[in-house]
Amino acid sequence: MQCAAILITLLSSVAFTSALPQTGPPASSCPVTAQMPECGVPCIQAAAIEIGCTKYMDFECQCKNAAAMQAAVMPCVAQACGATLAPVVGQIANAICEQCVTTA
Prior knowledge:
The protein contains four helices and no strands. The protein has 104 residues and is an all-alpha fold. The chain has one domain (31-104).
């Protein structure tokens, strides 16, 4: 039951949208990335590769393919980060898409 609650919380907090902009600045110009809990990083790296993005910091690819990214990353984040940090990973991922991916 707790795992289901974690996944529901993660689903609601990872509000990736499919209508995200097309190009993004370098990661160094996106300070919100430093707020990502470490437990989520390996999950995001693996999910990015799984959905065909070339690297972990390819925010344009990850945000453009938000539904696939969300489906690929959720089980790992729920297990690796637990109930406390899983929602934070979702919130920071959403913030990265909002703040680090800009329109062309």
